[in-house]
Write a structure and sequence with these properties.
heterodimer; A: pyruvate-formate lyase- activating enzyme; about 30% helix; globular; B: two-stranded antiparallel sheet; about 50% helix
Chain lengths: ~400, ~300
């Protein structure tokens, strides 16, 4: 069943592949070049607006503070808003227009990616389509992920990441991906999926979809983010880790990330207003140096240590440090402090660029042997290179 | 809104539909002394301004007759005359609450919002309706301290049971600034939601109203207790660090150890106050404490709390 109630297409996009996909899905649409904005994010979740590409869409996943390490992944903003309704989602405090906008001109998106990757051929780029929406939630209607998988297959130094909370993988299973696409899931404990991740695929459905893409030979990514504290979190996350690892093959896991709940202080009131039954804002939190509320460090460390121990046990690995263990799935913390890395993994990347490099090194070593061994210098911006 | 005419009138009554507004919003209305404003409905004039104080019934008084929208019974003219854009948010909310039941049309009320200084949006009507339900002391506070619309939207989002309790059992005993009020409400609401009832919050806070203390001191004590209740991990870890530092027996008048009490930044600042040559010996005393200070740093990995 489609999430879409109303579709509107910009007149420049009527011949696009996306419109053919809409036709195939049996979704009627109007042609309109001036669609009114929808101020409230929820009101636009079922309005699909197919737009032309305007300006640059390739960006870096935002990092706000140098005290928290981000992974320097690139994001292709091909979609804005999401049919799902997670209580902690930042979109409720971010979008000025709640319409679900998808760029119809795939070729323009791909050209931009090719240009960026062509400008730095020595680097391996990780590029995700999940910054402002879910990579697969609307795949039955738009078919966009399938077309991007096909395009990324032929871009030597780029990997596409499709991150989702859906179970919509059937449309991409037969794609000739050549392991250039990482299909990844945002996963959470059953209790959190049930109480906070509204309208998403249930945990079991996501795990079944994870198994399907694994069987189809895709590389996969596992994101345990945001970890949320609740009574019984230890057993909830233990069960999750066991289930997710058994749903895939260790050798196909490209990366695993771990992060904890965080949000801007002003979003607290939005969450309370939009999700009055949610208790996630009432747990003890501090204001971090990046201006975001998060659990106090002792609590985060306790939660992370528990997960790390479970991951090591389930993966049969005793060291998850991306610096030391090059054969393991690349493990990283999303937006965590250097000393948290140091305490829990025994080492931390010296910069976000080093972490970016570690990803490239891991991908080349584990999957892309035909590519040259990455050199760290190519992952440091020119301005920061000594002597430049 | 240009006046249509100037007329000398005797005995100008209020439009009966306006009476609830005049009664409820009395303190916000503008008092005109030299002339009045009125609207003309079916050949009769109705007063928009207060005539009781300055208009002897026996003598004629000058009135500017204003145009108005009949769909809203002249409330547009009423708002304009009484400079409604300058009203407190509470008065604006009270007006909207009356108008929604009187006009029986949300869109008609939305159309009046620009006269109150708002964009014409249905979400603003909804927000103002919620603000209008705030308990009485909070309303008085909001009028007196000119609390902003956005802040009142936040406050009105809290559960009514919580706000009623705050209005009766907390607010009468403190006199916070607006930002401190928001901080207290936010903290108390977190605790209320965590503990499940206002009684449980009061028990956990152990904050008894001490009427011998000034409201400032009562507020200070409330805030301290609230921090402890709201941030148990942070408080516990900081207390443990303080105890450890105390156990080092440093000269606390001359040597200070400070750290980030949010616990986010690892490490500490060690400062020595040197005011005499003898104070330089304190440097040697610290050398002996090197191992203990190393332990302090290790404790600040916060991995064992």
């Amino acid at each position: 069943m489609t999430h879409i109630k109303r579709a509107v297409v910009d007149s420049t996009q009527v011949d696009s592949e996306l419109i053919k996909a809409l036709d195939k899905a049996g979704i009627a649409y109007d042609i309109d070049d001036k669609v009114a904005t929808t101020p409230y994010y929820r009101d636009g979740k079922r309005n699909l607006v197919v737009t032309a590409k305007k300006g640059e869409t390739l960006d870096t996943c935002a990092t706000i503070s140098d005290k928290y390490i981000c992974c320097n992944v690139k994001v292709l903003k091909s979609i804005s808003n999401c049919p799902y309704d997670c209580s902690y989602c930042f979109l409720q405090n971010y979008l000025n227009d709640g319409n679900t906008k998808v760029i119809g001109d795939d070729q323009a998106l791909i050209d931009e990616v090719k240009e960026a990757c062509g400008n730095e051929p020595q680097r391996i780029f990780r590029i995700g389509t999940w910054e402002l929406g879910d990579s697969l939630a609307l795949e039955q209607e738009t078919g966009q992920a399938g077309r991007l998988i096909k395009a990324f297959r032929d871009i030597d130094n780029a990997v596409l990441e499709l991150k989702t909370k859906s179970a919509i993988v059937d449309p991409i299973l037969s794609c000739d991906h050549r392991q250039k696409t990482v299909v990844s899931w945002s996963l959470n404990a059953q209790h959190i999926v049930d109480t906070q991740e509204h309208k998403t695929a249930r945990l079991q459905e996501r795990l079944e979809a994870l198994k399907k893409v694994t069987d189809a030979g895709f590389l996969v990514g596992l994101h345990l983010d945001p970890m949320i504290y609740y009574d019984g979190w230890e057993t909830g996350y233990e069960s999750l880790v066991k289930q997710m690892i058994s749903a895939t093959h260790k050798d196909q896991i490209a990366w695993i990330s771990l992060g904890s709940l965080r949000f801007n202080p002003e979003m607290k009131h939005k969450i309370q207003a939009n999700f009055p039954a949610s208790s996630i804002t009432y747990t003890e939190m501090i204001l971090g140096d990046d201006g975001k509320m998060r659990y106090p460090k002792p609590l985060r460390m306790k939660m992370y240590r528990h997960i790390l121990s479970l991951l090591c046990s389930e993966l049969g690995i005793d060291d998850l440090s991306p610096q030391r263990n090059i054969d393991a799935p690349l493990f990283y913390f999303c937006m965590e402090r250097w000393d948290v890395w140091d305490s829990l993994l025994g080492a931390s990347p010296a910069s976000i660029y080093e972490l970016d490099y570690l990803f490239a090194r891991s991908l080349q070593h584990r999957f892309f042997h035909h590519l040259p061994v990455p050199k760290q210098a190519f992952y440091t911006p020119k301005a920061e290179k000594p002597g430049w | 809104m240009k006046p249509q005419s100037l007329q000398l009138l005797n005995k100008v009554a209020y439009l009966k539909e306006h009476l609830p507004y005049i009664q409820t919003l009395a303190s916000a209305l503008v008092d005109y002394e030299d002339f009045g404003y009125a609207i003309e409905v079916n050949g009769s004039c109705y007063c928009l301004t207060n005539f009781v104080n300055h208009h002897p019934l026996s003598s004629p008084f000058p009135y500017l007759i204003l145009p108005f929208q009949s769909e809203c019974d002249g409330l547009d003219a009423f708002l304009k005359v009484h400079l409604a854009k300058q009203w407190s948010v509470i008065h604006k909310a009270q007006f909207v609450s009356l108008a929604v039941s009187h006009l029986n049309s949300r869109s008609a009320v939305e159309a009046l919002l620009p006269y109150l200084g708002f964009a014409s949006q249905k979400t603003i009507v909804s927000s103002l309706l919620k603000i209008a339900t705030l308990p009485s002391l909070l309303c008085e506070y909001a009028i007196q301290k000119k609390v902003a619309f956005k802040s009142l939207v936040y406050i009105s989002g809290y559960k009514a049971q919580f706000l009623t309790w705050f209005d009766a059992d907390i607010l009468p005993y403190i006199d916070p600034s607006c930002s401190v009020l928001l901080e207290c409400l936010d903290g108390l609401y977190d605790c209320f939601q965590r503990l499940g009832s206002t009684e449980a919050v009061m028990d956990a806070l152990e904050w008894n109203v001490n009427k011998r203390l000034s409201s400032d001191k009562r507020l200070k004590e409330l805030r301290l207790r609230l921090v402890a209740l709201r941030h148990p991990t942070q408080v516990r870890v900081n207390e443990a660090l303080e105890q450890y530092v105390a156990s080092l027996c440093l000269d606390d008048k001359k040597i200070s150890v400070d750290w980030d009490t949010s616990l986010e930044n690892r490490g500490f600042n060690l400062a020595i106050s040197i005011t005499s040559v003898d104070d330089l010996n304190l440097i040697d005393s610290l050398v002996d404490k090197k191992e203990s200070l190393k332990n302090l740093l290790e404790k600040m990995s916060y991995d064992s709390y």
